[in-house]
Design a protein that fits this description.
Length: 133
């Protein structure tokens, strides 16, 4: 199993970045590596609450583990179309000058998914997030 981290600086307040992870319509604007796919997100942002995003025919879902508004969000991650084990994603937001430092950790990904799948998808997603902030 692989873990990886990604870091970004966004020129937006943590509250604005947080909203992009926790409001379904805002999350649907960036949460898909392929901008050509329709995205629909359902989010019950509370510890134990479920989340689900459909990106065209691809569906990913999980459960919120930790919700600390504007600072930290931890959730599980499982694709509907494969039997890969469930993984865990942590997002930590920290004020950074006039913007926000984002640290994303995706733990326990399969070796091939961690290097090419999950990591590659997150890189594209986080770039798209910057574009909508």
């Amino acid at each position: 199993m692989h873990d990886f981290t990604l870091e970004r600086h966004y020129a937006a307040a943590p509250e604005k970045v947080w909203a992009r992870f926790t409001e379904p319509a805002l999350m649907a604007q960036w949460f898909c590596p392929n901008p050509a796919l329709d995205v629909a997100c359902e989010l019950d942002v509370r510890p134990g609450g479920a989340w689900r995003c459909a990106m065209g025919s691809y569906v990913v879902s999980g459960t919120y583990v930790e919700v600390d508004p504007t600072e930290r969000l931890v959730f599980t991650w499982a694709w509907a179309h494969d039997d890969d084990p469930e993984t865990t994603v942590s997002v930590t937001l920290t004020p950074d000058g006039d913007g926000t430092h984002l640290l994303l950790e995706h733990a326990e990904t399969a070796p091939d998914a961690g290097d090419d799948g999950h990591r590659g998808g997150w890189v594209l997603n986080l770039d798209r997030l910057a574009a909508v902030l």
